[in-house]
Amino acid sequence: MQLAKAYDHKNVESKWYAHWVQSGAFKPAEGDAPYFSMVIPPPNVTGSLHMGHALNNTLQDILCRYKRMDGYRVLWVPGTDHAGIATQNVVERRLAAQGLSRAQVGRDEFIARVWEWKKEAGSTILHQLKALGVSCDWEHERFTMDEGLSLAVHEAFVRLWEDGMLYRAQRLINWCPRCKTALADIEVIHEESDASLWYIRYPLADDPSEALIVATTRPETMLGDTAVAVHPEDRRYQRFAGRKIRLPITDRVVPLLLDPYVDQTFGTGALKITPGHDFNDFEIGERFGLDRISIFDADARVDGSAFTSRGEKGDWIARYNSKDRFEARKLIVAELKEASFLEKFEPYRHAVGRCYRCQTVVEPYLTPQWFVKIKPLAEPAIQVVREDKIRIIPEGWSNSYFAWMENIKDWCISRQIWWGHQIPAWYCVACDSGNVIRGNKGEYILTKDARPIVARQAPSSCPRCGGKELLQDPDVLDTWFSSGLWPFSTLGWPHETDDLKNFYPTSTLVTGFDILFFWVARMIMMGLKFMDDVPFRDVYIHALVRDEEGQKMSKSKGNVIDPLDVMQEYGTDAFRFTLTAMAAMGRDIKLAEDRIAGYQNFVNKLWNAARFVLMNLSDDDSTPGFEPSILDGDEFNFAQRWIRSRLASTINEARSNIEAYRFNDYANVLYQFIWHEFCDWYIEMSKLSLSGKLGDDPKKSKQLLLEVLKQILVLLHPIMPFVTEEIWQVLAKNQRSLMLQPYPRSNASSLDEETENQMEFLMGVIRGVRNLRAEMSCPPGKEVKVIFHGPERDLSFLRDQESYFRSLARVGSVEYLTSGERPKGAAMAVVGSIEIYLPLGDMINFHEQQARLTKEASKVEEEFARIQKKLSNPEFLSKAKEEVIQKEREKSTQHEEKLRALNLSLERLREIELERN
Questions:
Q1: Is the pLDDT of residue 492 over 70?
Q2: Residues with Cβ < 8 Å from 875, sequence gap 6 or more?
């Protein structure tokens, strides 16, 4: 039974993952045991593994491996999202490289090319997740546009229509002029940008000598203004109540409104109202019945027909027609300035919405879209969280959930792209000809009043007139619509499948806070609507992974850590353990590569501990599986009683932490036990038994070492699956995979608080002796004399454990004193009620030691002064990067602590020399 001298993760990880998959270890177990099920938050089919995926899937995998080992029938469903806009953009770029556009190839050919791309590259992210070690049941893999899920999406749409919860209307939505589609709120990235705030004169219609000054960041949209508003309590404008405004350039006369929405502190307190191009203005327009003029076309160019169709005239229409919105802005500002309507402008910084895919500035745009009436779905979704039928963890996110859900607006579910679930609605060209209009290029255009025919299958004729020429709605559904069905569509809905019966509701959802509203909330609403039950019991929301300075990782900053790179460099187990150990509930992770390297040392520590155990075993000593009788007996020496008790306590803490989603506490409890207790203390203490120095049975010590190591492997496996499996397969010959072993449960009889307290005391004494040796620079191999002074009870305990501290602290002779004069010329430490003395005698040359320490302290003091001078230099602080300054501060702290320790050692030497003289 041998392990290689060093652990090589590159040869181990792929071997064991293939074994797990081939052996069916990821499949749900048979039988009637309780189930635990999860659905993976489906990554975009265009994606590649990033830190968010790595953290999210590591935490999910920990839960699944733990529950599987704890006797549950575990189903973890993997899959990917078709990612409408993102995927369409990828394929459009491929076409562009060939000198083609999607318009040239046509819809059917374009969609065929997307499927072809998906077949070639769409599984990249799933292969990367496998490298992370995720234990999904790959036979259950789903795709949001596979045949079954497409059926579910169509069925959900039709049922919502039949229940009167869908409608098509012209509303203001986020529009990307580059992608030419509506965008969900989450698909709009708001970035702080430098802009200008223009102050424009808006004359009164009945007296042009008087005017209101209106401040705006978008002067180009004044072409669509239909009112000006002020706050009803703003005294500056009360005398203008009831009067009208004549707009510059367009000469349009509009009302002056009084509305409490207006912020009196912004600009001048007078607000231009453009219902066709601002969401807040749209709401004001709804309240006052204002016209909504959509001044741009789908390319965000000024559309002259928007004005001529209203009967408006003037040279300005031709001047601005077809001008890009930003070009129109420059021209309008110039015209305002020339006509003395521009009072002033000033720099202004504000958030600008951009398309999450192409970074184009988003335009609020009036267009016919499909909407879900959301209030009837939101109300029960609020109630189930209030009643704890769904727990959101950490609990603080519940308040955010309620605030959003209670103010939710109808959901725009249509997108003007080709890749996605095409809306199952048709229009009759014959009996709805006034609303189904043929355009100049032969294409059909649907007006906002077009009458849809919603059906599960494409109708062969119009149910109203029998007409045969039917046009399917060209729009596709929002990706979040299909994702909202994910917890039950992946299990076979709308069919009544065994999976749906056995694994719904799912147990836990692990996700990031950024999609709490846009995905989690919609899954809750859809689950309650179509399954009449919640989609999951717990929602665990993890934080973000940032760089070591707490900055968001981004390619532009150059601070991105690639999970695949660090997994290759340090091993997947070290990477997974790092993420888990740092995943404190509700706190972002500040990740640095040196942390991963540090936990790689932990992997190596475990490996070396296993090698030590194996080197002390013969084939006869090895026992397959667990031997509870070895752990549950009562004939143990002190160290064995202690490690049994600590193991039992660790099992309890590990279970408690993982059940409560305290992942970092789970990892840190295991780290403390394995490194600091099992490796640093118990293995060293066990060497005395193994060598026969304690006079007990060496075989029992070997067996106990083996069984504690086995339980460590099982405890640690959910976080570190690869290295634990590799060691297990050598330790437990011919046994099933480690991931199928039962998760340990502690035996109450093993808990021994008294022994744990005594061991803490003994460790304190040993550390005390070690520290005194280090302070006095005693040669490492030299044995020292120790004198203990204290109460007989403690001295008696130390006498019983003398073999341990003799070995672990390199102690030669020992004296035990309950009274009398304290030794002179000795270094001294206190642990509890015990005083520890190291008589130095001829062990060191006081003068040489003092000279050495003085010289070293002088060097440290000189370097400390240099660093302090640097940190007090304003020029350095203003020019140096923050990480450079931080490193200097850390060096300053280290030098200060070292100087304090050196001065303490010098002071102790002086005291000891005085006592001797």
A1: yes
A2: none
Q: Residue 916: which pLDDT band, with cuts at 50, 70 and 90?
A: low
Closest CA to 7 of 609, 562, 496, 486: 609
Provide the total of helices (H) and of strands (E) in the chain, helices listed first. Answer: 32, 31
Residue 626, pLDDT > 50, answer: no
Q: What is the DSSP code (8-state) at residue 216? A: E
Is the pLDDT at 842 greater than 60, yes or no?
A: no
Write out the H or E segment, with its range, that includes residue 891: helix 882-916
Share above pLDDT 90 across residues of the chain, in percent, rounded to a whole number: 77
**What are 791-833's pLDDT values in tens digits?**
999 999 999 999 999 999 999 999 999 988 877 778 888 899 9
782-817: b (≥16 Cβ within 10 Å) or e = eebbbbbbbeeebbebbeebebbbbbbbbbeeeebe
- What predicted TM-score, i.e. pTM, was given to this entire model? 0.87
Of 430, 471, 428, the C-alpha closest to 451 is 428
Can you tell me the distance from the alpha carbon of 348 to that of 199, in angstroms, rounded to the nearest whole number? 12
Give the pairing of strands 391-393 and 536-542: parallel
- pLDDT value of position 632: 61
Find, among 848, 729, 762, the residue nearest to 4 by Cα: 729
Neighbour count for residue 150 (Cβ, 10 Å) = 17
Residue 694 has pLDDT above 60, yes or no: yes
Question: Dihedral (C-alpha) 837, 838, 840, 846: value to the nearest 10 degrees?
Answer: -80
414, 369 contact by CB (below 8 A): yes
Per the omega criterion (within 30 degrees of 0), is the bond before 535 cis?
Answer: no
Closest by CA position to 835, among listed 813, 859, 810, 818: 818
* Pair of tokens at residue 439: 């355009």
Residue type, 649: S
Q: How far is CA 423 from the centre of its chain?
A: 32
Distance CA 698, CA 686 (A): 9
Q: How far is CA 660 from CA 71, 312, 507, 664, 796, in A?
A: 18, 66, 14, 11, 43
Top pLDDT among 252 and 558 is at 252
| Whole-number pLDDT of residue 825 | 74
Assigned token pair, 181: 């589609």
How much is the pLDDT for 621? 58
130, two tokens: 């496998």
CA distance 318 to 776: 92
Closest by Cα among 795, 856, 789 to 823? 789
In the chain, % helix, strand, coil (3-state, to 5) comes to 50, 20, 35
**Highest-confidence segment of 82-91, 317-326, 697-706, 779-788:** 317-326
End-to-end Cα distance, the chain? 60
545: tokens are: 């992974």
Q: Is the dihedral of CA 590, 593, 594, 596 positive or negative?
A: positive
CA 596 – CA 571 distance, rounded (Å): 9
Residue 391 has pLDDT above 90, yes or no: yes
Beta carbons within 8 Å of 383's beta carbon, 6+ residues apart: none
Q: Report whether 206 contacts 276 (CB < 8 A).
A: no
Taking the C-alpha atoms of residue 487 and residue 485, their distance in angstroms, rounded to an integer, is 6
Region 131-150 average pLDDT: 97
- SS3 per residue for 200-262: EEEEECCEEEEEEEEEECCHHHHHHCCEEEECCCCHHHHHHCCCEEECCCCCCEEEEEECCCC
Give 826 or 170, the one with higher predicted confidence: 170
Q: pLDDT at position 624, please?
A: 46
131 by Cβ neighbours in 10 Å (0-12 / 13-18 / 19+) ranks as middle
Distance CA 583, CA 660 (A): 13
Q: Which residues pair with 454 in a beta bridge?
A: 425
Q: What is the pLDDT of residue 625?
A: 44
Give the single-character DSSP code of 422. Answer: B
